[in-house]
């Protein structure tokens, strides 16, 4: 692993100059455009990119003297993919290593994994837990390659909640006890009571969070909180939301039960993550309040179920995933705003299948619905961060004035969503912010 990381870092250095110098003008010709919104492709189009913006989209030839010309050959040009539930610092190693590994090493590993994320066509991720600020800065400055990152920073959780990774004998806590390692490096923060919740939320915002992530209910990878529990009292919930609102942003909540969802919605949180046990009442309330459901298409069986080191986590995972079909049905029934994410944790093999998990959406959605969710709709969710948005501009669409995050796809993903499951073969060009990171065309 260490030799692999060293080689990858050297490769990053060789390509950093390319990342720092956005193509001045790039002209895509003869492409069929999926704009992220319409169910119909715009056939026989030209698309001009100037700097990091899409300057022109036209079905008439575009004259762009001096531009780099890419003949699309009738392939599909579409927006870069967006993963609304990603963990930059947690997706590439087992949990037992990540919890105790040197943080400098973790940052290097996360930078390497971030390039792989970009090469899968995911040009933007919403990071919902972990101290990814260093990796994000390296990517933004061209020192490393990877997607745009909307960081939550440390996720905030209660004692005994999802995010309390201390040992079984580390409670009761005594005054003056040092923070455990995941808290010291800023991957997670524990807060109990309104004053602590306020302080920790402000600390995350001070670090640069674009939105706040709170652990609001029982989780799978944590060992001390059954799935049925609601985490935080209503007053604590409202404290986190109120602080986020003072910074003109929002709270995303790890939550599963309908009871917890309803409390968090009433407290003002705007994004419910997972929600496997969604019921009619909670779904209806979310729709009425305009609250997002951020879902993950996970499997209980087959090739791609999550694997856990603890049998406790395995049992909880199977219980949670069993509720997914009903949750999707209720979200569709009531018109709940729905976002797509993967939450691929603690397993580099699963992380490599990020696009395959997007393709799993076709169990419930048409290819158009799935692709719109992973582009335009996810971008709409990210925009809730308002002035905390680290990348002002329009994402998730192909239209004039939008940020130039683009994929050139071999084939038509609106007809075959499985194309996104094999990005190495099917994504011929990957552009982020006007920079071409991959071009497999002659």
From TrEMBL:
SUPFAM superfamilies: Composite domain of metallo-dependent hydrolases, Metallo-dependent hydrolases. One of its GO terms (molecular function) is hydrolase activity, acting on carbon-nitrogen (but not peptide) bonds. Residues 1-19 form the signal peptide. The keyword Signal applies. InterPro entries: Amidohydro-rel (IPR006680), Metal-dep_hydrolase_composite (IPR011059), Metal_Hydrolase (IPR032466), Metallo-dep_Hydrolase (IPR051781), OTAase-like (IPR057744). The keyword Signal applies. Pfam families: Amidohydro_1. It comes from the Bacteria. Keywords: Signal. CDD domains: Met_dep_hydrolase_A (cd01299). PANTHER family: ALPHA-D-RIBOSE 1-METHYLPHOSPHONATE 5-TRIPHOSPHATE DIPHOSPHATASE. This is Amidohydrolase family protein. It comes from Alloyangia sp. H15.
